[in-house]
Design a protein that fits this description.
The chain is α+β, with helices and mostly antiparallel strands. The protein folds into three domains: about 5-85, Rossmann fold, CATH 3.40.50.20; about 115-175, Dna Ligase, domain 1 (2-Layer Sandwich), CATH 3.30.1490; about 180-345, D-amino Acid Aminotransferase, Chain A, domain 1, CATH 3.30.470. The protein contains eleven helices and 17 strands. It has helices spanning about 10-20, 55-60, 75-80, 90-95, 100-110, 120-130, 155-160, 225-235, 270-275, 280-285, 315-320, and strands at about 5, 25-30, 45, 65-70, 115-120, 135-140, 150-155, 170-175, 180-185, 195, 200-205, 205-215, 240-250, 255-260, 300-305, 325, 340-345. The strands form three sheets. Strands 9, 10, 11, 12, 13, 14, 15, 16 and 17 form a nine-stranded antiparallel β-sheet that branches. The chain has a four-stranded parallel β-sheet with strand order 3-2-1-4, sandwiched between helices. The longest helix has 14 residues, at about 225-235. The chain is globular and about 55 Å long. The structure holds adenosine-5'-triphosphate and magnesium ion (2 copies). Adenosine-5'-triphosphate (ATP) binds next to strand 6 and strand 14. Homodimer. Keywords: ATP-binding, Ligase, Nucleotide-binding, Purine biosynthesis. One of its GO terms (molecular function) is phosphoribosylaminoimidazole carboxylase activity.
């Protein structure tokens, strides 16, 4: 096919559309916001309601293949796209949309998540804390990102202050990790799997701040079992495209945090730092093309997110010729919002 549909209009969609253009494809973007930033580089279908089955089907008819850059897309309308392939398959989306099903699924494949329990009421929270212990993190099961919808629980006093609304939650034991890393793989339509080097990820206030490659120890020696798990996930979902699993490196080996059925912020370094970027390989995979070499193209790559007003310092960033600056064109910065990123390569 020659036209790719992308569900979601954020920076990931924009980067996918840019790679698609390089390979000669056109993109249509389906996004709830009329001024989605991905729309700047491709044709947009603005839709006030994500879950509008009729408009999503009309969108799909204008495309040869549909993919997504955002996991909080309603699954039901996606099941009625008719003959247009949706890749990765909606089952991946369905599994990853809910932290509970995601953890159960990965556990079923032999992965080790932090101890967890679903929580819908204060009584269930008390029971979860009694079983799992303190400290812990209470998270919304759905729709959280960048640490939004999470409450750290240190003591009983933190529980008293909580106002549990109607949404389903999950309580997780706090993982005393040594470091964080991600496995990003791309699985082709023929089932071939390619792995990117795992980055050492540093989060600040629940938001990714920094990804560094090579990751060094203790990550380097935990990548193999983590990759094995990621491959099992991809296989079980008959996955096509880029898949990300986030891990905590602990004294006892890798602990699974969460998965993203899409290209990932911790893989932005691959745009300049890998032989073939995660975005290009995702497009290649969903279009049935052979995958490109994912290997590191420098000796060190470091990606730093520009959050809130950090993007205002772009002129200083550009003054260093080793830096590659990306600004997402989001307009006014707000605290905690990802406005851009910078990748620094050491050749
Ligand atoms: P993303 O933007 O990656 O989707 P998210 O909102 O889904 O983020 P998580 O990945 O669940 O959030 O958590 C964000 C960060 O908070 C983690 O990368 C980690 O630093 C910290 N964190 C989350 N859960 C735990 C835990 N159980 N133990 C220790 N730290 C945790
Ligand atoms: Mg997440
Ligand atoms: Mg995360």
């Amino acid at each position: 096919g020659s036209t790719i549909g992308i569900l979601g209009g954020g920076q990931l969609g924009r980067m996918l559309a840019t790679s698609a253009a390089q390979l000669g494809y056109r993109c249509h973007i389906y996004a709830p916001e009329p001024d989605s930033i991905a729309a700047e580089v491709s044709h947009a279908f603005t839709q006030a309601e994500w879950s509008d089955t009729v408009s999503m089907a009309a969108f799909a008819r204008a495309c040869d293949v549909v993919t997504y850059e955002f996991e909080n897309v309603p699954v039901t309308p996606l099941l009625t796209l008719g003959t247009v392939p949706l890749l990765p398959h909606p089952r991946a989306l369905e599994t990853a949309q809910d932290r509970l099903t995601e953890k159960q699924f990965v556990q079923g494949l032999g992965g080790t998540p932090a101890p967890f329990a679903p929580v819908d009421t204060l009584a269930e929270l008390d029971a979860a804390i009694a079983a799992i212990g303190l400290p812990g993190i209470l998270k919304t099961r759905r729709e959280g990102y960048d640490g939004k919808g999470q409450w750290r629980i240190q003591s009983a006093a933190d529980v008293e202050a909580l106002d549990l609304s109607a949404q389903p939650l999950i309580y997780e034991g706090f993982v005393d990790f040594l470091a964080e890393f991600s496995v990003i793989l791309c699985r082709g339509a023929d089932g071939q799997v390619r792995y990117y080097d795992s980055a050492r990820n540093v989060h600040e206030n629940g938001i990714l701040a920094l990804s560094t490659i090579p990751a060094g120890e203790p990550i380097a020696s935990q990548v193999a079992p983590a990759r094995e798990l990621a491959a099992a996930v991809a296989e079980a979902l008959d996955y096509v495209g880029v898949l990300t699993l986030e891990f905590f490196a602990t004294e006892h080996g890798p602990v699974f945090n969460e998965m993203a059925p899409r290209v990932h912020n911790s893989g932005h370094w691959t745009i300049e730092g890998a032989v073939t970027s995660q975005f290009e390989n995702h497009i290649r995979a969903i279009c049935g093309l052979p995958l490109g070499e994912p290997g590191l193209a420098a000796s060190i790559a470091e990606m730093r997110n520009l959050i809130g007003d950090e993007a205002a310092g772009w002129a200083d960033i550009l003054a260093d010729p080793a830096n590659h600056l990306h600004l997402y064109g989001k307009g006014e910065p707000s605290p905690g919002r990802k406005m851009g990123h910078v990748t620094r390569l050491v050749l």
